[in-house]
Structure formats: C-alpha cells, structure tokens
Amino acid sequence: MNIEVKNRKLNAWISEVVAMCRPDAVYICDGSKKEYDSMMEKLVAAGSGIPLEKRAGSYLFRSDPSDVARVEDRTYISTSAQDEAGPTNNWLDPASLKETMKGFYKDCMKGRTMYVIPFSMGPIGSPISKIGVEITDSPYVVANMHIMTRVSSKVLELLGAENDFIPCLHSIGAPLESGRKDVPWPCAPIEQKYISHFPEENLIWSYGSGYGGNALLGKKCLALRIASVMARREGWLAEHMLILRLTNPEGRQYHIAAAFPSACGKTNLAMMQPSLKGWKCECIGDDIAWMKIGEDGRLHAINPESGFFGVAPGTSYDTNPMAMDTIRDNVIFTNCALTDDGDVWWEGMTDELPAHLIDWKGRDWTPESKAEAAHPNARFTAHASRCPVICKDWENPAGVPIDIFIFGGRRSSVVPLVYEAFNWDHGVFLGATAASETTSANIGAVGNLRRDPFAMKPFCGYNMGDYFQHWLNMGDRLGNKAPRIFYVNWFRKSDEGKFLWPGFSDNSRVLKWICERVEEKAGAQKSAIGLLPLDGALDLSGLNIPSENMKELLQVDPVEWKAEVPDIKAHFDIFGDRLPERLVVQLQELRKRLG
Ligand code: SAT
Ligand code: MN
Questions:
Q1: Which residue, of 301, 492, 494, 586, has the fewest CB within 10 Å?
Q2: Residue ranges in 210-339 assigned as alpha helix (H)
Q3: Ligand 2 centre from 258 Cα, in Å?
Q4: Ligand 1 lined by 213 (C-beta under 6 Å)
C-alpha cells in the first residue's frame, strides 16, 4: 500500500476485500491532480480513454453497449424485512444476496489494481457532510469520483483511528486471468450486475457495471438511497433535486429546489439564463439536495456533490449555454460521438450535422446513418467550479434557505405548464403522485408513463409509504416556514406532437410567476388540481406564442383528470397501510373537486 491507513475499520475492511477479490495491487487515493493524470494515462494506454485534441484535458470513453445507464431492475434495497424496502424497491434477503454477491466478488479483481477512494459528500469537515470510502477496480471510476465528490487524503485524516464511514464496494466484474487481454470497457453481463444497498448497516455493494450511477457510489447509492434512510432517522431530507438561486430585478433572492426524474432537464433548469430582463439565475446543484431545518426554523439545502454528471444529447449553446461553457475543458465524456478533428459531438449540439463522425460504438457515422451518433444517455462529467454561473454559496456548509419546491416530469398531455399546491399536504400529494415518461437514463423501455413519486422511485432507500409520512412530518415541523410547493410540466405537446412551450430560458417566465406567488403578488385561479396562473399573470413579454397554445398549456381537462384518479388510487393501493391517511384524504378531495 502506498499510504498508511490508521482507521481500524478501514484497515479491516481493506484486508477483507483483498482476501475476497484478490487484486494484484492496492492503491490508496489522495485526490491529487497527479493521481488524476496517472489514471488518465493508464486509461489511454489501455485504449479506453481517447484524448480530445480540441478540448484541453478532456477524454472520451465508449462503454460496452450493454453498460450505458442505470439498471433499476438489478438494484436492491436489502433489509431484514421486505416491508422496510417497500413496494417500489427490489428486495432480496441480506444473507442470501451477500452469499450470491460473494460468489461473484471471489477473485474478481485478479490482474487488476484495487483503488481505495476516501471521499466526502459535502464540504470536507462540515457537520452536514458524510464520509464514504469506495473500493473499486476501475481507474475510470477513480477519475470520475475525483470530479463528482471530494476525494482527498484529508478525509483519511478526518477518519482518524476510530471514526466511521460508509463502505462502498465496487467491482466491474471482469477479472483478468493471466495472459488474458483487457477490453476498453470491461464489465459483467447484465444478469450478473447487482447494485445492492444494506441500509441497516450503511453498506453498498455494486458489481458488474462501470457506468455512472451504478459505479460512482457516492452519487445515487450513498447520497440518495443510503442518505434517505439516514435522513428519515435523523429528521432531514435527502432528495433528487437541483438547487438554484434566482434573483429578481430588485435584488430579492429566491432559492428553489426542484425534483424531476433523470434526463428530464434538471441540469438545464439549474443553469438556466433567464430570458426575462433583470432576472439572474445561479446554480448550486443539478441532481441532489440535502436539506436540514436550521436554527431559523427554515429548510437549508446543500449540494453534496462537487460535479455534474449531465446528459449530453440535447445540450447546446441554445438550450444550455452555461453547461456548454462548463464543459470546454477538463471533462470526461462517455458515449458521445467523436469528430474527425478530435472533438465530441451529440444529437442536438449543432443545427448542422457533421459530415463524418465515429459513433459511440466506434463505427463510422454520416448524416445518412440510421443509428444515433451519440447514445441518448451519453454523459459529461465536469467539475462544478467550471460552471460560469456557479453560485458563490455553492460550498457554503450552512446551505441556502429554500423558498420553493417544484415537482414535475415529462407529460406530453394532461398536466398543465404550472400550478401551485393549495397547502403542504396537497403539495406532498403532488409529489407523491408525480408521473413521467421514462427516459434512457435507465436500461429499459423509453416513453412509458410511470408514477415516479418525488422523482425518487429509483432512489428511495426505504418504504415509500413511510417516505410520504416523513415529508408530512417535515411540513408539520416547518409550519409557516415551509417552502411553497409547485408542479410544472415543460413537455406538453400539441395534437400534432409539437412542444407547446419553448422551455429553457423561457422557463424563467414560469419561475417569475412562482416567485410572485410567494410574494402574494401574482394572481391565481382555483382549479380542481391546484392554483393556476390567472389570465395575463404569466409574463409573456417579447415571446411570440399563439394564444391557443397558452390556452392548451394551462388547460385542466376534467375528463382527462377524472381518468387519472383510478390510476392514482391504484398507485396508492400498493402501499397498503403504510400510505398516510392524509394522502387518502387528498385523493378524496381531488375526486370531489373534479365533481
Ligand atoms: O444515475 S446516474 O448518475 O447515472 C444518472 C441519472 O440517472 O440520473
Ligand atoms: Mn439524477
């Protein structure tokens, strides 16, 4: 080992994993630039990373075609009683799951180096932060963790001899028997992939995948699934939410936390540049929010991550100029297309298609090609400090006070552009019933409507009925200091299948109405589903949008909404007696209002 480890639990765990996985060498990471560069050198030499001539310090990786997204079907919450994992999670008994996985872990790091990554989610040393240690056999994971989390030898110092941490074990599941040649993206077949969580012992075991959320264990596994269980136990919130600061022309700041499912535009909203004059938006986080009630009685949010693992396709200087500037240099790209002059490209990046590319599978591509050049879930990994509109308070351990919660998803019909909850319980009902069309962020069908409560269906580490109750309890504790709750849908389409709302920077118009609601300045009308903008209350100045589009965007069709009710009822029924009575009341009231 290159560094002496003093922490007793860590030493014991390292020995245990070495005995089980049999790596050729063990390396303790210090998070330095030198270390990052050496990982990249190794990856380039192995033919996994392609240096990009056109982007300084940037590399392109092409994954195995089977390893392009999270694998929800292979993700487990393993608690002693199945009821604790609840109906929205896959469950296996901890003893038998560990037995199965130990079978795979046995000798799985042969021919490889085992990296030990000490990392902090949240600023190192802050009372709100959590320390994890990831063991992995993937240098690609080490490099990505450098960007997405705070990897540092300071974390080891902080652990001292006796302090606790969250162990995160990861293997790509591709041992190199002697003489066997490595491949650019080693991984295990889908039926051998396991993303397992043991919340009762704060433990994560991941096997078989090198992709983002399956392999960078600080992100979804620790900061959401394990943290959500801790948050419930300790009375705070760990949520799948972006955090942004919006400043109005008078200089009043609003902090917004918004939950949308994966690949539904969180990064775009978090970095949005308002089309409305005088309004300013700054990014604090694009994926995860940890929120605690402060001494002032308000909810304060931090972003536990230190980077963005964003969806590349669709990102352009038109849709998200700040993301484009964030990824100018020092970026890891995964599954993007390669241009002939050594840059990356993806669908939606430019209006004009390049004449020739190498696609994400390494094949020649021309505009005539049928296949996509970049995988629809192609990603960039970039450090948050590279973002031109990163908020100066993004690393403030005290967090920012949240004024507004927004829930939403992709719905091509039924759900209007924006509406407000009548009160906290109704807001929790909106979160609990949120639905969205599935995206390529998960391996599986795309475009199917599913209920994705609070955008947490794939990320809640315990029974979601209890999670709903936790939200109700938090509201009770916050009282009149609770954030106001809204629901948005940027994705409504016309009968011809065209988006009705321009989105992106024009979403500032919706945010303005929301902020003015908080100030009791903007008008709203009561509908069966919530409070909608009064005619003329949305600032559409300078926007050329046909009035029939606006009408459709703000329409609440009672027939369509009545059809939602049995679907919501069926969704609620799966929680049995874990469904809070207060949500049953909300459904009854919705039914009554619909008449
Ligand atoms: O889970 S990932 O981090 O790979 C991306 C996502 O699905 O949000
Ligand atoms: Mn996400």
A1: 494
A2: 212-215, 227-234, 266-270, 321-326
A3: 11
A4: yes
